[in-house]
């Protein structure tokens, strides 16, 4: 089976009006070639002391669909100000007849919202 990677395309997210603006994640193979696939990405919000604060600060859903190998996260809204790290997990990524699971961390040192 070919190894697939979720590759982060931006190292920092930009916050505007308590929403994340246009970070794009591509699904690619081990050679860096984009995979035209679809799936669901979930986001976890971590506080500066590495505590899971998703349910406290995330408004709405924490699951986002992506298609054609790309995801544009423009709808992540926060309920309070702070500095947070974001971790993204791809689940239910359909590749042929199997379901694969991947993990990707967007390395956001500081996210001011």
What does the largest sheet look like?
Answer: 4 strands, antiparallel
Q: What coarse outline follows from CA principal-axis ratios?
A: elongated
On the 0-100 scale, what is the average pLDDT? Answer: 59
CATH architecture: Sandwich
Please provide the ordered H/E string of secondary-structure elements: EEEEEHEEEEEE
Instruction: Please identify the top-level CATH class.
Output: Mainly Beta
Distance between the termini: 41 Å
Proportion of residues in helical segments? under 10%
- What is the count of distinct domains? 1
Structural class: mainly beta
Low-confidence stretches: 1-22, 94-113
Strand fraction: over 45%
Descriptors:
113 residues, mainly beta, Immunoglobulin-like, 4-stranded antiparallel β-sheet, 3-stranded antiparallel β-sheet, 1 helix, elongated, disordered N terminus, disordered C terminus
Structure in a nutshell:
The chain has one helix spanning 54-57, and strands at residues 4-8, 14-16, 19-21, 24-29, 38-46, 58-59, 63-66, 70-72, 77-78, 85-95, 98-106. The protein has 113 residues and is mainly beta. The chain has a four-stranded antiparallel sheet with strand order 7-5-10-11. Strands 1-4-8 form a three-stranded antiparallel sheet, with no helix packed on it. It has a two-stranded antiparallel ribbon with strand order 2-3.
Description:
By secondary structure, the protein is mainly β. The chain has a single domain, classed as Immunoglobulin-like (Sandwich), CATH 2.60.40. It contains one helix and eleven strands, in the order E-E-E-E-E-H-E-E-E-E-E-E. It has one helix at residues 54-57, and strands at residues 4-8, 14-16, 19-21, 24-29, 38-46, 58-59, 63-66, 70-72, 77-78, 85-95, 98-106. The strands form four sheets. Strands 7-5-10-11 form a four-stranded antiparallel sheet. The protein has a three-stranded antiparallel sheet with strand order 1-4-8, with no helix packed on it. The longest helix is centred in the middle third of the chain and has 4 residues, at 54-57. The N and C termini lie far apart (41 Å).
């Amino acid at each position: 089976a070919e190894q697939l990677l979720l590759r982060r395309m931006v190292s920092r997210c930009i916050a505007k009006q308590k929403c994340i603006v246009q970070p794009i994640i591509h699904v690619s193979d081990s050679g860096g070639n984009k995979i035209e696939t679809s799936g669901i990405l979930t986001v976890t919000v971590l506080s500066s002391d590495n505590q899971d604060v998703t349910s406290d600060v995330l408004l709405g859903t924490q699951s986002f669909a992506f298609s054609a190998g790309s995801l544009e996260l423009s709808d992540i809204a926060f309920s309070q100000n702070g500095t947070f790290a974001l971790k993204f997990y791809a689940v239910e990524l359909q590749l042929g007849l199997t379901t694969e699971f991947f993990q990707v961390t967007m390395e956001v040192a500081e996210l001011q919202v």
